[in-house]
Write a structure and sequence with these properties.
Chain A: It is found in: Nucleus. Chain A: This is Cell cycle checkpoint protein RAD1-like. Chain A: Keywords: DNA damage, DNA repair, Nucleus. The complex is a heterodimer of chains A (about 280) and B (about 280). Chain A has two domains: about 130 residues, Proliferating Cell Nuclear Antigen, CATH 3.70.10; about 130 residues, Proliferating Cell Nuclear Antigen (Box). Chain A has about 280 residues and is mainly beta. In chain A, a hairpin with a 6-residue loop joins strand 12 and strand 13. With about 280 residues, chain B is of the alpha+beta class. Helices cover about 20% and strands about 40% of the residues of chain B. Chain B has a 17-stranded antiparallel beta sheet that branches. Classes of the chains: A mainly beta (about 280), B alpha+beta (about 280). At the A-B interface, helix 2 and strand 9 of A face helix 4 and strand 13 of B.
């Protein structure tokens, strides 16, 4: 991507300027993580990370690499701000998100720095929409310290597999239903069990299933997660092609979704979830 | 007082039914005015600007009815005013709209059963010689002559700006998104064919600009050239756009600065006027 073109514009004054011919890719990714109202946006020269959290237990983040955009201009230091994601999504969708391929509004997004609004200019079929969304000071985002070295079990699979299982759960079941994820080098290898007051149900996925691409488990891990907390992961599952499921020694679940966009760019959405406390498990 | 009419063409029956369902979406009660030449649906909103109606729909009798006979109160006042619940009429008509095979004819009559009724008689195709007829009665209330003045034809408001709207579908998408952001929407237009629809809240300002729209030519030039705007209730506008199954050939939007938005939906045989009073004087 030529970075020379931005010299023509007066964009130098802005800490963050983004241009793309297809606003729908941004919309699609942001929608996938829109389970909570507020989002933290972190802009760096590598790209834009949008982080959504709820209850200090779950975090989802979408990473929009700078290569995704026709123009991406960010000052060297990192810019962060908090924004109403619901409003941002509505603004990006202002033209109704035509389902026809090739018909998409172009987008220019500017952020003027601390205290200034996020400005969007969308254009489709010579109709122009201006949006100015107020920003807030960013809070610290949760740091899960999830590093590759502490990962014990790792499974790469096609996203349909988890999507079908996750969408069939009864999230409104009586009590507080939990999902137990068992990953192990020994049989049953990979088992998802839902446990509620009234019932438990197990789903086993054989490790040589077509759905599973890579299976590397070194230790038997059995962790419980509140079903309600996992529910927001359905949205990214529906748009992703592949999903990487990892658990580390502390039992934190990390789902990484690989999303192939219309323009063949690959984007990643990450989803972290804390396990239920050990003592609750009988 | 007598009225009877007969529709034969299925497209006319469908069109009539679409108009009635549009009316039904907008209000619980409407007034049906029948004259020799036209049939009118009128929604009167109390407290509206200059006591104008909310909706004034004018249907050319000759287009819809193959047979049409009306006898009013007297020779001089050869017209009938009825009050009815458009929802009831709409439900009845909708059942014929989708009926397979299509009905042969639809007769509409003013009858006196236990109370005054608008009777709809539908003749369905039958294999035997005996016709199959379905009769629906929609109760109506006759409006006495002393109240007629309330439902007189509205005068064209003294508007400040006037433009032809882009396709309603396009407007609808934008308005639907804006509806989630704010309760009020501002229409601004000038005589150069620019229409700006915008919302403004604590969180976000969004404005969509439509350029190079056609400008209707009105006899007297009362457009001063500037941009004029009026802010209206977005839900009411949404109802109008949602219910517009009439596919008008042209839509004119007239703006009375700070007082009213007047929509004029033109169709070969139907004209619909919609009066949206300004919500706030800004």
């Amino acid at each position: 991507m030529s970075q020379l073109s931005h010299h023509d514009d007066n964009n130098e004054d802005y800490p963050l300027v983004i241009k793309t011919e297809n606003a729908n890719t941004v919309l699609q990714l942001l929608r996938a993580i829109n389970f909570s109202e507020m989002a933290t946006v972190i802009g760096s020269p590598e790209g834009l990370r949008v982080v959504v959290e709820e209850g200090k237990c779950i975090q989802a983040s979408a990473f929009l690499q700078s290569q995704m955009f026709q123009e991406y201009h960010s000052q060297d230091d990192v810019v962060t701000f908090k924004i109403n994601l619901n409003v941002l999504v509505e603004c990006l969708n202002i033209f109704g998100g035509s389902s026809l391929p090739g018909v998409a509004p172009s987008l220019k997004m500017c952020y003027g720095g601390y205290g200034s609004p996020l400005s969007l200019v969308l254009e489709e079929a010579s109709v122009l929409t201006d949006c100015n969304i107020r920003t807030q000071e960013a809070d610290d985002t949760l740091e899960f310290n999830f590093c590759n070295t502490s990962v014990v079990n790792k499974i790469v699979m096609r996203s349909e597999c988890l999507r079908d299982i996750f969408s069939e759960f009864d999230y409104n079941c009586c009590g507080v239903p939990v999902l137990e994820i068992l990953t192990s080098p020994d049989p049953p290898y990979f088992r998802l069990s839902t446990i509620s007051n009234m019932s438990t149900s197990d789903t086993d996925i054989p490790k040589d299933s077509d759905m599973i691409e890579t299976f590397s488990c070194t230790k038997t891990m059995r962790q419980r997660y509140k079903l309600a907390l996992l529910r927001p992961s359905i949205k990214p599952l529906t748009i992703a092609q592949k999903v990487l499921l990892r658990t580390d020694e502390r039992g934190i679940l990390c789902l990484q979704f690989m999303v192939k966009m219309e323009d063949n760019h690959i984007c990643f959405v990450e989803f972290f979830c804390c396990p239920e406390e050990e003592e609750e498990i009988e | 007082m007598k009225f009877r009419g007969k529709m034969v063409d299925i497209t006319c029956i469908k069109q009539f039914s679409n108009i009635v369902s549009t009316v039904a979406r907008l209000s619980k009660i409407c007034v049906l005015r029948i004259t020799k030449e036209h049939v009118y649906f009128i929604i009167h909103e109390s407290g509206a600007v200059e006591s104008s109606p909310g909706l004034w729909a004018e249907l050319d009798q000759g287009h819809f009815f193959n047979e049409f006979h009306v006898e009013g109160v007297s020779q001089e006042d050869n017209q009938i005013f009825l009050e009815l619940e458009p929802d009831k009429l709409s439900k009845t008509l909708n059942s014929f709209k989708t009926a397979q095979p299509a009905p042969r004819s639809l007769k509409v009559k003013l009858t006196r059963k236990h109370s005054p009724c608008l009777t709809l008689e539908v003749e369905l195709p039958s294999l035997s010689v005996h016709a199959r007829t379905v009769v629906h009665d929609v109760p109506v209330t006759l409006i006495p002559r002393r109240q007629w003045h309330v439902y007189q034809e509205p005068e064209m408001p003294q508007f400040d700006s006037s433009v032809y709207l882009p396709p309603l579908r396009q407007i609808k998408h934008v308005v639907d998104r804006m509806k989630t952001l704010s309760q009020h929407i501002t229409f601004s237009a000038n005589r150069r064919g620019t229409l700006i629809i915008s919302v403004s809240t604590d969180v976000v300002d969004v404005s969509t600009h439509f350029k190079n729209l056609s400008v209707p030519v009105w006899g007297d030039d009362n457009d001063t050239g500037g941009t004029h705007s009026a802010t209206v209730d977005i839900k009411k506008l949404g109802l109008l756009l949602q219910g517009s199954q009439i596919n008008p050939t042209k839509v004119i939007c007239n703006i009375v600065a700070n007082r009213m938005v007047h929509m004029f939906l033109l169709h070969d045989d139907v004209t619909l006027q919609y009066f949206l009073p300004a919500a706030t004087n800004t």
